[in-house]
Structure formats: structure tokens, C-alpha cells
Design brief:
There is one protein chain. By secondary structure, the chain is mostly helical. Helix content is 32%, strand content 0%.
Amino acid sequence: MPASERDEAPRRVAAGAAGVSMRDLLAACAAAKAVSTPPRDPDPAPKATPGTEVTEEPRRAA
């Protein structure tokens, strides 16, 4: 194909993308991700490091 024919090829625009702002597109993507992502399992209880366990409150002098 000669270069002149290649340069004259019409530009294609994705159907449906015309007229949609980037802000609306990003908002739609964020909403779709939030809806399609399953909830996370709760984090397990933190493990105590040796020497930091609190067994009782220190007693105060009367």
C-alpha cells in the first residue's frame, strides 16, 4: 500500500467512548471495581511479642 493511502485512512474512535469524559470513565471504573471486589476477611488477632504480655494491672500502694 502506498504511503499516501495509508496516511489518508480514517481514524477510528471506539463506539460508545465518544462524548464520555475522563472523569466519568474513571468514576465508572472505580464503581465497577468496588462492586465486583469481594469483601476481605478480617485480619487475624495480632500476636503478642515476647516480653510485652500484660497479665494484670500493677497494684497500687494504698
